[in-house]
Write a structure and sequence with these properties.
alpha/beta, eight-stranded mixed beta sheet
Length: about 575
């Protein structure tokens, strides 16, 4: 269930990331590719010969750099929408550069063979459809694609002196394909979300039927990019996911994602700004098509980074679409291949070692260690044996599994093997836990408390594990309900750095939580788990620090009902 989606995403990644980069290099070869193919005759080598050379000698250096980057190995193998956004943007660049190549001197000889008008219409239809797909994947796609479209249309219309008939012609064809694909997405989304609305509604009531009818009549309710933009435009909504300084993308996320690529890019940007200020610009020595692609990639990176930095919530994956433009521009330089004739073997090896080391470390960290215990703990729930009480031989199942201070557990992995419900607890202080699922006594439930504070955890414990004292739950029915054997304990899945501060000092195998009605013991642990939000406290012992880099499964019970099994914390 995990392998098939990852294999599928890996295949898409090879086609739309690696393949698109290869096509960009073919359509717009750099001066180094031309130099290697032309045998000293600059400007006389065709792109067909360049591509032939690249295929004979294997993948270009830039493609190898992309394939070996840790974002491609980690994000490219997983079904993130940011990964799909990067693929669509790379494909859009290929279409745009392919169309722009028609106007170069190299390709003018093929006009009478392919038909300029027909080829232009096909490109326009593809561009409109691709933009629609990208925006419906993630609305932030528009921030990266905007300069691509501006540069493309400017160069295209400049060839015809901005005549109105050509401007209208191009706009209508792109609008037609964009609206056609967008309407298809809206239709599918309307069917899906209206079905979801109907499921969560009590159809026997008039209020429900009226609310469902109104939602069916408002198409804006089902335009996903519009809803996503409206949600993310409010700082109050972003605050629930964490707020960051505006400079986080440029100062932290770019170097963390791309490492040497980002540093080389920043250096090149500073060099270009300096050349602009002093009035000295580098001469274009390789033809207009490479210059077109270079400018398009530079503005794509700049536009996406600038607009996304305006939002106060900034996660590294948001700028993942920049990877193909970055590698196209600086992939050869980052491994020391920018100036082959002046580079020594040791210099090339040094650059490559830095690139390999950086990506290996980040791949191990984010690909294996970061939240690495989450999936093993979830798989362990499928085989977890019931805990045997001290004075009974009858087994009992925990009331609930609480995931606390972890990423959202992918509970779909448990479907078909046990009946699970899922609870989320945002806004616990104002509204309590929001749950979905069938919570009968025989059903084991997974509760996701996300990153809520300890008071939320206590409220959940009171709800799902009320002890005998009536004043604890404030509900005599809950106290009576706790007499059931099935309700006497539950499991808490959380890093030890989070749980240890909630426990009193105790030398016994059973520890008492700071809330005296509850006791807790360590049942299982999963090593190789790092939570960057909750690092262990360093007490001077490296061994103790490394020993807390794990995800633990605890058994929580009322003091008098705690089972006798487990290990000392």
């Amino acid at each position: 269930i995990l392998l098939v989606p990852r294999l599928f995403m890996a295949l898409l990644s090879v086609i739309f990331l690696d393949g698109s980069l290869w096509m960009l290099l073919w359509y717009s070869p750099s001066k180094w590719a031309i130099r290697e193919d032309s045998n000293g005759e600059r400007g006389e080598t065709s792109t067909a010969l360049t591509f032939s050379s690249m295929t004979r000698s294997g993948p270009p250096m830039e493609v190898i750099v992309l394939a070996s980057s840790w974002p491609c190995l980690v994000f490219g193998m997983r079904p993130f929408t940011n990964n799909l956004e990067a693929m669509v943007l790379a494909f859009l660049l290929v279409i745009v550069v392919r169309d722009a190549r028609v106007t170069t001197n190299v390709e003018k000889i093929n006009h009478h063979l392919m038909g300029k008008a027909n080829r232009g219409v096909l490109s326009l239809l593809l561009i409109g459809a691709t933009c629609s797909v990208g925006i419906f994947v993630r609305f932030t796609f528009a921030f990266f694609a905007f300069p691509v479209m501006i540069i493309f249309l400017w160069n295209r219309w400049k060839e015809v002196d901005f005549k109105l008939i050509y401007v209208v012609h191009d706009g209508l064809w792109m609008a037609f394909s964009f609206l056609l694909v967008s309407c298809a997405f809206i239709w599918v989304d309307t069917l899906y979300y209206s079905w979801q609305t109907k499921l969560t509604c009590n159809d026997t009531t008039t209020t429900c039927e009226e609310r469902f009818g109104k939602k069916m009549g408002r198409m804006l309710k089902f335009i996903v990019p519009f809803n996503a933009f409206r949600y993310n435009s409010k700082s109050s909504n972003l605050a629930e996911h964490g707020l960051h300084p505006r400079i986080t993308h440029a100062a932290v996320n770019m170097p963390m994602l791309f490492g040497p690529l980002a540093l080389v890019g920043f250096g090149s940007m500073a060099k270009n700004m300096r050349a602009t200020i002093i009035g000295r610009r580098e001469k274009n020595r390789v033809g207009s098509i490479y210059s077109f692609t270079k400018n398009t990639c530079q503005w794509t990176i700049f536009s996406g980074l600038l607009v996304l930095s305006c939002a106060p919530h900034q996660e590294p994956r948001f700028i993942l679409p920049s990877i193909v433009p970055l590698v196209f521009l600086y992939g050869r330089k980052v491994v020391g291949g920018g100036k082959v004739e002046n580079s020594t073997h040791s210099a090339l090896s040094w650059h490559k070692h830095v690139w390999i080391t950086f990506n290996f470390i980040l791949y191990m960290f984010f690909g294996w260690l970061h939240q690495g215990g989450l999936l093993p703990s979830l798989f362990q729930l499928l085989d977890l044996q019931s805990v045997i009480p001290r004075d009974e031989t009858v087994t009992q199942s925990p009331r609930a599994f609480i995931y606390y201070k972890t990423y959202m557990p992918p509970t779909f992995l448990t479907l078909g093997t046990r009946k699970d419900g899922v609870c989320d607890a945002p806004g616990m202080e104002s509204g309590g836990v929001t749950c979905s699922g069938d919570f009968q006594h025989e059903i084991e439930v997974i509760l996701d408390l996300q990153g809520e504070n300890s008071s939320v955890l206590l409220e959940v414990l009171h709800k799902w594990l009320p002890c005998h004292s009536p004043d604890i739950s404030g509900n005599s029915d809950a106290a009576k309900h706790s007499d059931s054997a099935d309700d006497r304990f539950l499991h808490l899945v959380s890093p030890p750095s989070v749980v240890l501060p909630l426990m009193e000092e105790c030398d016994e195998p059973t520890a008492t939580m700071k809330w005296e009605e509850y006791s807790i013991i360590l049942t299982q642990d999963h090593h190789g788990h790092i939570s960057t939000e909750d690092w262990p406290t360093f007490d001077g012992s490296v061994k103790n620090f490394l020993g807390q880099l794990k995800l633990d499964l605890y058994t929580v019970s009322c003091v008098q009902d705690l089972p006798s099994t487990g290990r000392k914390i």
